[in-house]
DNA sequence: TATGAATGAGGCTTCATTCAT
DNA sequence: GATGAATGAAGCCTCATTCAT
């Protein structure tokens, strides 16, 4: 009640993100958001022209964060060492807002499709992958993607996640690094 | 009206599954389902007491399929060879209805939570993992889970998936096998 | 399941009456009636063309019972003794099906209006009163009506009824007789 | 749209009461209420969270009015004179909103049961009776209840009411007073 | 006599959105 | 910046009823 002047838009964003993750976009009503903020529904319309606009705003934040990663990668010299460094960076980033935004997207897949278009986020990620693995073979691409997933698993919980255990970011990072490291193993050269 | 006797319930299930994956549960209206089936909304209520009941039915099918996998694993002698065989089986199964049901769950995460309860599917999967890796260390558990994800990736497309390429089930299986195979040290040091 | 052949119509009537009293006509669905009878909804349509028809059937029974009372009164010589005898008769009759039918009407007042018409039952009762009190003054008419209510109170429970006590038919009859007995009391001659 | 600010809730209450009496709760649709008020159905939901809530609101008004009567009785010294005075008060009150609310309850008996609970109103009335007749015998209790009914009859029309005549409040009150007045023996033996 | 499957109408409710203040 | 009141569209669901078997 004191000291939060003008940050209403920010608070809306926060609450919306939380609820969109927990309950999904469609089940989250503007009334709920407003109530949690102790304002009226109509007040939200002062800050966002539309419910969808909140989603677009959140997605744009995610895209911006991915763009930062892209810029980060572009600034580094390519090479196998890059993958290792990148996973470290990714692991950091994922534990913050970036992680929650990814969760938001994962929990609202069909909604994403018809509010921001099919590939809004996916496209950007593919760009990122291309940068990391320009010219590499499909298997390497798949491995890096799994490595990212592994890192994600270290922090969040979704289906296929072990619900009985606490998140273990370091373990996840270790496995991810292994996955991404180049190999001349029997398996990948076989067949 | 022609030749389709008694299969209405089955057809509802089919269309609902398709639409729940494509548009999500909340955005899929009963009217849509009914129209695509060329019946009235009320007809749906003859076969399912509620919209949620369709979801529950679908989830139960998935659970049943997982239970089959569990039974399959329990029938085999344990050992490292089991993992290899299991991934093969999983790969087969994932290309069929099982895969679509997983997709359905992934695309409706928050809905799952409040219709069938938080862990309805996750719990079952954890049981399956426990069986595969009873007594193994956390890293092994994480790897098997990633291996399953890899197989899933070979067939479906979700966030973090490479949207420009066709699914490559064989490649995915190969990487999965590598992930799950036992290795000399925690961090692979080559073969 | 054994011995009740052909009495289905009767059983429908019974169950419907019970439910119409307890829950009201509108809230009682044909499905409920059918379920309690362990038949299907459609089966009801063999016995009654319509839900309203069940109501009409019940009302006609009540009307028939009132007509019996009318005939009974017409057969007796008029005079003050008649009132006493009639209340006795009424008290008997009210403890049986007649009472339940009255309850049914009381619990479904607006429904009666638009299924059987505003005065279907009331008209008949007025006829009965006219017979009992032909030529008597308005006060006497009101007293007889209250006497009948008193008798009703002795058996049923409605609003304005003392919910803490058991029905006391004899007490009710006693008060009713007092009410109906002619008087030259100070009150009725005053003003 | 003209001159009616903030009274919408009141107007809803009014129209609902009228229609609930005339057609019964179940047969009265929100569309009807809204149309008669020249607002949209959704507007009703701004003022009442639910159709049932309108009923509850109405019942609470009735309960409040009964409570006023209870307070009125408690403020008077007990004794036979109290009954006379009370019937006078009751007669006044019954010709206003109180009477319509009672009518509403009488015309929606089963609905009352499952919206506000079996004894919501009955309980309160019993409290009132207890106050009037603390320690008196069952017959006296029955008589006072009949006296109240008589007063009701003077204003409203229900089953067992003489539909051909106009309401006659004064006559009704006279009979009620006679009913409630103490008498020599249980069965009146003249004056 | 009875049922399984389906329909059409309509009911209650919810929700994003608007607008005058 | 914010609110109270209202709207329009649409959603889920229920129910009496029908009809071929």
From TrEMBL, chains A, B, C, D:
For whether the record's keyword set contains DNA-binding, the answer is: yes
Q: Which InterPro entries match?
A: DNA-bd_HTH_TetR-type_CS, Homeodomain-like_sf, HTH-type_TetR-like_transc_reg, HTH_TetR
Entry keyword annotation includes DNA-binding: yes
UniProt superkingdom:
Bacteria
Instruction: Report TM segments.
Output: none
Keyword list (alphabetical) reads: DNA-binding, Transcription, Transcription regulation
Portion annotated as DNA-binding: 29-48
The molecular function terms of the Gene Ontology recorded here are: DNA-binding transcription factor activity; transcription cis-regulatory region binding
User: HTH tetR-type domain location, by residue?
Assistant: 6-66
**By what name is this protein known?**
TetR/AcrR family transcriptional regulator
Report the source organism: Amycolatopsis suaedae
